[in-house]
Structure formats: C-alpha cells, structure tokens
Amino acid sequence: MGAPRRHSAAALLVAAAVLVSGVAVALALPAAGEPPARTRTGPAAGRTPGQAAERAYEAVCRTEVTGSRATADCHNPYPVVDRVRLHIECDRWWDLDVDTGPVEVGPAQTVRLSAGCWMPVRAAWVTHEVR
Question: Which domain holds residue 105?
C-alpha cells in the first residue's frame, strides 16, 4: 500500500513544478503588444525635440571589422552636412584605442573611414554631428 502514496507524491511534486515554472515564464514575458521596459521606440525616444530632428538627418553608416582593421562606409542622403567620426576600441589593454578626425559628408556623398589596432578590434562605431 506504500507504493501508491509515493507515486501520488511524485505526481504532486511534478504538477507543482510545472505550475511554478509556468507562472515564472508568464511573469517574465511582457504583455502582448507592449514593448519591453528598456526598449526605446521611435526616433524621438529619450531625446528632446531638437535632438530628434537632428538625428533624423544623420548619414547612414555601415561598419565592418576584419581582424585588426575597422572600416565604416557612410552615405548621406539628406540635404544637410553630417560630420562623422570612426571610433575603435582595441581588444588588448595595451593597444591604444583610435578616434578618427571628423569627416564632412555632404548631401548625396559617400565617405569611407578606416583605422586599426595592432591586435584585433573589440568594437567599432560611428558618431555624428549634424551641421
């Protein structure tokens, strides 16, 4: 008669575990149609109206890292000038990080920025200054 109690106790523990994990998953997921709390939506999220308008005219840049070199190709489809700079964070602590000088990208122009480290590149990004 002791065996049925073990099975029912095991079944009860399994059911409780499934219930608790289901509740935990439901609480971890955001509500349907609601963005996660850390997600910014729209071009103006977290910006003043002037900053949002300025960001709307930034050149479009594509950054590529290959070994110890980083290259950014930036195209400006807007009627304003954007000054772009390539920033590189090197992988080794002793390898100096690189910031290129600003390059003006006029309307309908494309520029290529390139720089590198002695050893592999950890990260590369472009900053903009719309004029």
Answer: 49-130
Looking at residue 110, its pLDDT comes to 98
Spatial contact of 65 and 124, defined as CB atoms under 8 Å apart: yes
Domain contains 74: yes
- Cβ neighbors of 84 (< 8 A, separation 6 or more) are 59, 61, 72, 74, 102, 103, 105, 111, 113, 126, 127, 128, 129
For the whole model, what pTM was predicted?
0.59
Q: In the chain, which residues have pLDDT < 50?
A: 2, 4, 23-47
Q: Could you tell me if residue 25 is inside a domain? A: no
Q: How much of the chain exceeds pLDDT 70, in percent? A: 58
Cα separation, 42 vs 32, whole angstroms: 18
Helix, strand, coil share of the chain (percent; to 5): 25, 35, 40
| Residue 116 within a domain | yes
